[in-house]
Amino acid sequence: MQLFIFIFYLLLSILFFRYYKFDQNTGLSFAVIVGLFLLRVLAGTLNLYIHFYSVVSNDVGFYHWQSVNELKAMHENPQQFFYEWLLNWGDFRLAFDFSSPLCNMFWKDLGILAHTKYMTFANILSLGNQYVNVVIFNIPYFIGQLYLYKSFYQKQPEKKGLFVFVIFLIPSVLFWCSGIHKDGWVLASFGIIIYSVNNYLVHRNAKYFFTLIAALFYLFIVRYFYLLALLPLLFLWMYTEKRKQKLVYYLSAFLVTLLLFFNIQKVLPSVNPMKMIQSRQTEFLGHIGYSDMKTPPLENHFWSYLENLPVAVNHVLLQPTYSGKSPMKYKISALDNYWVLLIILILLLYFKRKNCNEAMFLSLIFYAVSIYLFIGYTIPNCGALVRYKSEFTVLLLASLVGLSEIPALNHFLNRMLSRFE
Prior knowledge:
The chain starts with a helix and ends with a helix. Helix 5 (101-126) packs across helix 6 (130-155), helix 5 crosses helix 10 (206-222) and helix 11 (224-240) packs antiparallel against helix 16 (359-378). The chain has helices spanning 2-19, 30-53, 59-76, 78-87, 101-126, 130-155, 160-168, 171-176, 182-203, 206-222, 224-240, 246-267, 273-285, 302-318, 328-349, 359-378, 382-388, 390-403, 407-418. By secondary structure, the chain is mainly alpha-helical.
């Protein structure tokens, strides 16, 4: 029965993609679109299996069983259940008192609420089957990722093979962003945000503006820090879209940002970004697990950040390292990380400055590098680090593809894709 339900929703999702013509303006056949979706579902199924059979305590299981218990109330008191599910989003009186610690907790809990409410929706449809939920979660995840691909394809359609490869087929991204975690929502939000900005700048259509606002709000409640870091680069993208010498604007903005980051608290004591990152690190240090990397605690001054920069770079770029004594999952993660580093180095070797005329590429590469450093500074566990940086690996690699030129590789990958069309 469970297998039948799984296949039913899998076929239903494929019909959904066909009906709404998600293959339009992608340069890809519908067969390729379906293949990429099925690959995501396979990776999400593997992710779920590993988390339930090798990790006893995990967020996926906790939220699933919490949702299943809540569903029991639907039979006992349907009116109360639907009220709680659809209308109870916490106490909004706490939402706008930004001086209160409860405000931060409200928005953090709101992201968890949105995720668990969608899980309840999935459990209603799947009759509580976790593997069917993988399909239901991956529908919006895949749509957002497809819009991310479309954004890059619109800029450089001749590189569609490379964009498909770095956006859909990097193993760590495929594994983490297809699981029932908030990482899939983050990547989907990025896709819709980037697609909306790109098309609004071209068409000036209000529908892209309102879609952008909705996606920005969702990113805010899922990972508010990611939005705070993204907004300035979105504004810079819009400001420089029609201007020349874009790289000069971005490098100038980068230097000004660094200056403000380390000095703004001297002018506005209530605004202290260094303290925010230090607090975030302290929060993660309280959950040190098996894969602790001995991250040194940050202090609230410039020299602490400078001294810890090599450690942050080492963690985010070179960890985990391959070791015969490590568990298999860390060996696989290490090999994936070496693969990503190799791709980065190759793309940097073929970097072409002429492509810096695309503000979208510059915004995303500055954004990805900034969050990479944030992750390197704050996350002490190797396992969590691999997961959290996965969605930014997509942005980094896709942007580097846009900034580089490798015609022979483009031609080879496009020919490989054509075999499935």
